[in-house]
Amino acid sequence: MEFPPALFPSYFSAGPPREEGGPAPAAGWGEHGQVLEGGPGPERRQAQPAFVPRRGGTGEIWEPADAAAVPALPPGTGRWIPSPAPQDILYRNSRCRKLRPGKSGATLDFAKQLGHFFVDHPEDAFGTMGQLLHKNFYLGNSKLERPARSSTIRMTALMEDIDRLEARRGCHRQHLASRLRWFSHLCRDWLFEVPLGLLADCLHEELMLQWSDLLFDDSITGGALAWLPPRDTGSWIGRLVHPGGQAMNHLYFQDMVLEDLPHAQGSPAQFELSGRIRQVAAAQVDGEDFVGVRSDYHCGVWRVPGRRGAAPAPLQVIHTDVPASCLTVSPHLPGELAVCTRSGTVYLWNVETGLQLLRDDAQTMFFRDHSPWRWSDFTAHPRVLSCADRTGLQCLDARAPKKCHFDLFKVGEEAGCQQGERVVLPMYLGRAHPSQYLVTTQFSVYVLDERLPLVPVLKWAHMMKAPPLFAQLMPGDSRRSHKVLLGASHTQELLLLQYQGERYWGSQSACQMAGAPQKLHSIAGCLRHLPTQLPHRHHLLQQRLGAPAAGLVATLQEDGPHESMLVFQLSEAGDVFCQRLTHKAVHPPAPTSRDEATTAPGLVPSPAAALRYRRWLRTLYRGCEKRPQHPWSPSLSQRRLFTRRDLEGPVGPSTLQRQVRQWLRQVMQEGGHIQCWEPLALQPPALPQPPEPEGAPDPLSTRLTAAWSGDWEQWWEERSSFSVAQRQRALRERRRRQKRARGRRSLSASFTSSLTYQSELSELSDAGLPLPSPGRPPVLSQEGSPPASSPLAGSPPASPAPDEALLSSQSLRCRGIPKERRKTLRDYLSVWAEGPPDPPELPGSQTSQLCIPSSQSQLSSASQTRRKRPRMGF
Amino acid sequence: SSHEHKLNFRKSKEVCLSYIQDAMLQKQWKRAAEFLTFYVESLEKDYSREQVGPSEMIWRIGTEILCHLSHSSMREFNCFIEQMKTLGIKRYLKVCLEHVFHLLCNGQIDEAYQNLSLAESWRFGEQTAIQDKEMKLIQAYRGLLDYYSWSKQKNILLEHGLDGFVDLSVEQEMHSSFRKAAVNLKEIIKIPGVWDLFVKCYVDLLEFYGDHNEAHQVLNEYAYNSRFPANPNAHVYLYQFLKRHGEPKKSLISALKILHDIVPSHELMIDFTTMLQKSKKRKKRRLGLEVIFAVLDYAGWKENVKAWSCLARQVKQIVISEKHLDWIKQEWDCRKDWWPAFHFSRYLAKRNWQENKSLSYEKALVAGILLGKDCKYFKYVSHQGCKAQVKRFRMLKKFVNRHNPVYLRIS
């Protein structure tokens, strides 16, 4: 408890920080800070004075025992849903921009999220109006008839407009298509089930919340992992307290045997809580462990009696109106905790006497900061609590909290802070020294002594990529350094620091950093040591192992002359990984072995670790495969248009299936083999295209020939003349050509081409022209005789496939669908069956190119041929 | 494409830096050094407008690597630092200062002194506030080294002075060292800060030349100037100075009273309470009780036998005299809701008995008086003590039983 006789020199000034801030990549290296005469004492000053540096002294050597972190527990059975990533909620153009916390350089993709809501929850978004209005929305592609046009909107046109708008995104001079503006103006107020403004507000609020959580989620400050050390020295069984389950709402007390690779012993004591566990804190008082558990609106405390194997007992639960941001357990008095809420209240919670309000102030302490985060911890005096917000720390006396308080740490010039620096995690270092305190910010880590407030006794720029949200202390003694482990969430960084407190080298001395900081393995680092995976599993693993860290715990274990450090890390997916570091006890007098490369980067995991990985993977995949598969392929729900009965197809195998079976049987009998399952493959392989017959040269050649012979003008006349007769002739000419072509092309292509023809004919008929004689037989019968060996080609489907059956006028009628809606329905379904709409006004010569085999399936093209039949009768 | 080139260059620079960082954090110093040789290229095309430019990073990283590489010599280190000094003008003083620290920690006091003198004479344009501070520190450290050489010469003189042989040149040198040290040290301790080392040396100088007033004033200023941080050492130095010079009890007490107000858990509080206890004035004895109770509030003192015996002695005295029981009552009132669990639990009784019998004796006495003879702590310890047939525990039991009514009066 003695105060060091001399402190390292430092300037002291008050006020806001002057140094301009920003993360500096190498700021923590190469400085000694200050020096102090730390020799054997002032009496022996005759010899040269000996100086010790504030930073840069030698520390203990801890070497990782394995190449990577190893799973300590089997993976949780619950399915884990990864939290949103920046690309999920950011506007795509700004994704590549640097994301800097605090500065809003990113644009949230508000419209996309709203769109997702409309698509995913159409019933909630426009259920009522949708039902009332659906006959006024036309989903087909063709033009509307005169009487219908007055009461029906063609949605495809709107969709086109939207697509066009989408394509123009990022263009400054975009203006809305008038049709869209008109539409949105007309129905913005009444179309939506939830008023659009309200919905947008809520969504925006949620998006902002998600985004700020993504930048920095402080609800997990402190970490949700705790370690209850073995009772008696020499025992190898400690207890790990960790959350688990699908919603991380189960609390487990798991006995762990600390061998080379720690493993679980027996089944854990388990408690189901009513909220996601954010923080687990523990402290040992009078030989008993007290475990505090914080979720958003509830805090609970458990007691774990000192006897080995004794069951943990829940003591008390409190409920808060505002989410709690902190729960710490007193290391001094049994059953005492400190609780803070996001509304700025701080309570001392005693299991026997209840809650005592210490502070209720929504404002931050030293300057204005928007963050509602508050923290509280205990100090050397059991009645004095520290109380922190982002701007600093104050100590309050619980007996007179209004009157007795002092400032312990201020983000300001006092501690030499940078501009924009904020407190991230304060921690009482009572086990190392009763009056020491750790404060981490996003840039630096400070050690404070409450006897000398405001002036840090140690400061070091930690250079971590993410702010350290978790910290663990492993106290040393008078000869050994104290070890502090810092952990970040999103980057999973783990950094081991050492410092020497007072009473070093026999005499007291001021705090110094000892040795260089050391990075430990992260969970994600074990990915490259795992056996090679299939790509989708690799991706799954990558996502799982890369989940943000959610807790950290470390313990020292002595085994005779060997000493090792065990570090457990919890991820948001509920996985607990552990790693062991061994202490190299011998301090060689010469600084020869002080430095070099302790771990070769390409080290392989030990056989035991490899076995552990394999087991873990097996359990993980078993859990994954069990989960229900959701086919998320884009599909159209037809449930609201038709009843289930309507949608039921004919019982028994379809024609196609029957034919394929027959074919298969035949091939098996013949002892042949199948090269390709496509029914098309039954046809002889496509021959190389023979040259076009003389009579019908391709349009380009005609044009060139015409140009060569000088009557190009006439050719143009022919082409551009608009006489109907010419167009009809051209069409017939094309049909002839197609017929010829069909002889050597695929079946489906012929369907497509015939379809094109038909639709063009009907376009003409729309224009009020006399129909060309429709006396042609149905399309399929037009085919040239197919190869006899093929059982499929040439014969029309005997019984229509479900879709076809659905579309035929008769079947529609017999299902009770009114006549006026049948057309809408057919058109509507055709939108989904068809490919991109054919350009209606293509010159005839170009349409011949449509004869190339389309990607449409046999079934859908067949259905199109069927749908033509009723139309022919118009 | 020049823009693209810049971007690519910046990217590869960042990647290189992250490799270096990674290697250093895994203590692979050699690997880091190899990467650093590539990183040096970034100096050539330094487009950055960042706070910490590549030259500073090279200085920092290079220094760190050289400090940890086993085979690097001091000569190499000095060579590297000299190059770094020329690399950035703004940082010149900082690099010098760090270099001096390194030399000092390696025992090269003379080289450090030379470097300090060199740095002191450095001038470049207008000094910034930070450079001003660094310059003051450089001067102060030079003053400190002057003080050490003064102290060395003083010791030589004192030794030889006894022989009657006095070397005039040594004496002159000593005085000049004094002057140089005094000027620089006096400067820095005027500026608010933590200057324990400098203040101690300066006061030592003044005391040697008999300037007690000045020394007293310096210490007063260091302890009581409100622009300085509340440094307990400042009060300790003042107290020690007063004690050395035989100042009256009253001023010693007032110095310690202020220390008690700012750090109630300071180790000098034991001296303070003993001093107060010996006083004839009631008010001071009352304060003595308050001080020792306050000391034992702190977790760090929980198992300190000296503190517990202090409290036990005072409590015993009050109980025997049966005067001022209200003092105990007042102190106890604000502690009775948490001291029993904090100090007098059954678990602690067991542990204290096992680990430290005399601690458990003192604590049992206090517990017996404050909580009565039925208190768990007292019962356990006295039972164990009687079982072990230790005489003083039997006496303790008798004493507590006899004075049990006190407990009723204070609770």
TrEMBL record, chain A:
<feature type="region of interest" description="Disordered">
    <location>
        <begin position="764"/>
        <end position="874"/>
    </location>
</feature>
<feature type="compositionally biased region" description="Pro residues">
    <location>
        <begin position="685"/>
        <end position="696"/>
    </location>
</feature>
<feature type="region of interest" description="Disordered">
    <location>
        <begin position="682"/>
        <end position="702"/>
    </location>
</feature>
<feature type="domain" description="TAF1C C-terminal">
    <location>
        <begin position="808"/>
        <end position="874"/>
    </location>
</feature>
<dbReference type="InterPro" id="IPR049090">
    <property type="entry name" value="TAF1C_HB"/>
</dbReference>
<feature type="compositionally biased region" description="Low complexity">
    <location>
        <begin position="22"/>
        <end position="33"/>
    </location>
</feature>
<dbReference type="GO" id="GO:0001164">
    <property type="term" value="F:RNA polymerase I core promoter sequence-specific DNA binding"/>
</dbReference>
<dbReference type="InterPro" id="IPR015943">
    <property type="entry name" value="WD40/YVTN_repeat-like_dom_sf"/>
</dbReference>
<dbReference type="InterPro" id="IPR038801">
    <property type="entry name" value="TAF1C"/>
</dbReference>
<dbReference type="Pfam" id="PF20642">
    <property type="entry name" value="TAF1C_HB"/>
</dbReference>
<dbReference type="InterPro" id="IPR049087">
    <property type="entry name" value="TAF1C_beta-prop"/>
</dbReference>
<protein>
    <submittedName>
        <fullName>TAF1C polymerase</fullName>
    </submittedName>
</protein>
<feature type="compositionally biased region" description="Basic residues">
    <location>
        <begin position="865"/>
        <end position="874"/>
    </location>
</feature>
<dbReference type="Pfam" id="PF20641">
    <property type="entry name" value="TAF1C_beta-prop"/>
</dbReference>
<feature type="domain" description="TAF1C beta-propeller">
    <location>
        <begin position="291"/>
        <end position="430"/>
    </location>
</feature>
<feature type="region of interest" description="Disordered">
    <location>
        <begin position="1"/>
        <end position="48"/>
    </location>
</feature>
<feature type="compositionally biased region" description="Low complexity">
    <location>
        <begin position="785"/>
        <end position="809"/>
    </location>
</feature>
<dbReference type="GO" id="GO:0001650">
    <property type="term" value="C:fibrillar center"/>
</dbReference>
<dbReference type="InterPro" id="IPR036322">
    <property type="entry name" value="WD40_repeat_dom_sf"/>
</dbReference>
<feature type="compositionally biased region" description="Low complexity">
    <location>
        <begin position="848"/>
        <end position="864"/>
    </location>
</feature>
<dbReference type="Pfam" id="PF20643">
    <property type="entry name" value="TAF1C_C"/>
</dbReference>
<dbReference type="InterPro" id="IPR049089">
    <property type="entry name" value="TAF1C_C"/>
</dbReference>
Automatic annotation (TrEMBL), chain B:
<dbReference type="GO" id="GO:0000120">
    <property type="term" value="C:RNA polymerase I transcription regulator complex"/>
</dbReference>
<protein>
    <submittedName>
        <fullName>TAF1A polymerase</fullName>
    </submittedName>
</protein>
<dbReference type="GO" id="GO:0006360">
    <property type="term" value="P:transcription by RNA polymerase I"/>
</dbReference>
<dbReference type="Pfam" id="PF14929">
    <property type="entry name" value="TAF1_subA"/>
</dbReference>
<dbReference type="InterPro" id="IPR039495">
    <property type="entry name" value="TAF1A"/>
</dbReference>
<dbReference type="InterPro" id="IPR052669">
    <property type="entry name" value="SL1/TIF-IB_Component"/>
</dbReference>
